[in-house]
Structure formats: C-alpha cells, structure tokens
Amino acid sequence: MAKKKSYTQKILVDLYINYVLQHNDTPKSIYSFSQSNGFEEAQFYKFFGNFEALEKAIFTQFFSNTIETIESSKDYQTYDSRNQLLSFYFTFFENLTANRSYVAYSLSEGKNQLENLKKLKGLRTKFLSYIDQLDIEVLQIKNKQLEQIKDSVVQETYWIQLMLTLKFWLDDNSKSFEKTDIFIEKSINASFDLINLSPLKSFVDFGKFLIKEKIIMK
C-alpha cells in the first residue's frame, strides 16, 4: 500500500484552488478531496475544520503574501502612510491577478453574495489591523469616546474602499487591468485628501473617473 503524502497548509490551499478551477466546482467532501490528492483525511484537519475555513484562509494568505512582499522592500519603510497604502494595494491586486480565475469564481459562486463575502472575514480582520497601524493623519478629537468612534469610521471607510476596488477589478477588462491601477491611485489620493480635510481636488478627479467608467451605483 502506497504511503500517504504529508502536506503543508499552503500545499492544501493550492490543491483546493486547482480542484476548483479544474472542476468549476468545490469538492463534494473532505474525504474525496484527500483521497484524490493522496493524503490522509486527518492531514486536512491539522489546518482546517472544513472547506469554509480553508476558503477564508486563501484570502488571508493573499494578504500575508502582500505584507511579506512590501515589508521586504527598504523603500517601503521610508514611505509615508499614503504611499505605503498605495504599495499595499498594487501588490495585493498583483497577487489577486495571479489567481484571478479562482477569486472570480469564489466571489460569484451561487446566488448568495453574503455567503461569498464571509470568505473575506479573515482578510477583513487583518486589513483593519493593517490600517490601524498606518500613521494616517486625521482630525484630532479631544474626547476619548469620539476618538474611538473616529478610528472605527476610518477603518470601515478603508475597508469599503477595498471592497469597491475589488468589485472594479473583477469588472475590469482593460489590458493588464490598467484601469484598476488608475482607480487605485485616484481613490487612495481622494480618501487621504478627504480624511485630512485637504482641498477636494483629488476627490473631484476621482469622481470624474467614476462617471467616465460608468460605475456609479444606480
């Protein structure tokens, strides 16, 4: 009897992504998934309790890969918060582009979009933590409770921005997703100018871009 293989978490994630892309469907069971890939079912449970946990881990892995890449750059450490966030976005969407077929399938699977968004729960937690540690200058409020509310609003604003960018990228059919790059630059600049109470030139510029691309929500 052939000895079963021993896999790492990353290998299991890669096997799962390959299965989904090859079959245009998720595995029917953890047992069948393990048998078809030559490892013991117990190997799976060392890392994940079910497929839902694995799917969440895929998006947190995209995040972790992004952070590892940008923090390995000496230049990144010298950037201000605006350019650090821009660097994060460009690198993050490069990672997504490398796995675009899976991301598109995963976030459009079935008819329940709320269920699909649950796959981003781990990513959301890590991203909000990342935003919190960025030195983003905002209006100071000399009230502890209001200050906490302000911090929460800032985090949620940037999470919504990430989700809007993700939606734009999924719908983008320009070569090399160059329109997404423009969207990222204009939206980040607009958000920083708005939060910092700076002139709204960048925000207006971003609005013109949205109208041109006809993505204003009806």
Please, could you describe this protein's structure?
With 218 residues, the chain is mainly alpha-helical. It has two domains: 9-45; 73-213, no CATH class. Helix content is 71%, strand content 0%. The chain contains twelve helices and no strands.
Please describe the biggest sheet, giving its number of strands, its sense, and whether it closes into a barrel.
Answer: none
Contiguous helical run count? 12
- Per DSSP E runs of 2 or more residues, the count of β-strands stands at 0
Instruction: Work out the helicity level.
Output: over 70%
Q: What's the Cα radius of gyration?
A: 20 Å
Q: How would you state the average pLDDT, rounded?
A: 85
Question: Which consecutive residue ranges, at least 5 long each, have pLDDT under 50?
Answer: 139-150
Taken as a percent bin, the fraction of beta residues is under 5%
Structural shape: globular
User: What is the number of domains?
Assistant: 2
Euclidean distance between termini CA atoms: 61 Å
Question: Helix- and strand-based class?
Answer: mainly alpha
Task: Name the helix and strand elements from N-terminus to C-terminus, one letter apiece.
Answer: HHHHHHHHHHHH
